[in-house]
Fold ATP-dependent DNA ligase family profile domain-containing protein.
Amino acid sequence: MKIKKDYLEGATDSLDLVPIAAYFGKGKRTGVYGGFLLACYNDTEDTYQTITKIGTGFSDEDLVKWTEKLKETVLPSPPNYFDISDSNKPDVWFEPTYVWEIRAADLSLSPAYMAAIGIAAPDRGISLRFPRFLRLREDKAPSDATNADQVVDMYYSQSLTEGLGTKSAAKYY
């Protein structure tokens, strides 16, 4: 039996991320948001930087609940404090309001997401592989979410990138 390392308790740290947008559900998820665009907080620039799209870890009841809650925070367009790429085209945008605890298998470099862009690689951000929703963090405000520097530290401390040495080693990717 193959066991993914993120299923093992303590194998990966969780991240506290902010839902800033959603995608309308299809098929079984029609009528609710079926996926969410998440962001980390960049406290240096006071922006929310996209890091992943998530659709797993939610029960059907969770999706109904989050659709109702997030509908109250819909924005007409993304504000200038959202750091987003052209490849992310969600159906609706939200005011940063909630913080979700997320677990993932790994962190990887991505041209589609903006988390810590230019730090680990000149033209790529950091993204999560196989993210899943764990729970709402009621004890945190959006500005208390995992920040871009923490994302970079997590990226370099994982076994995938261990031994690369310094942040400048990203040129090999």
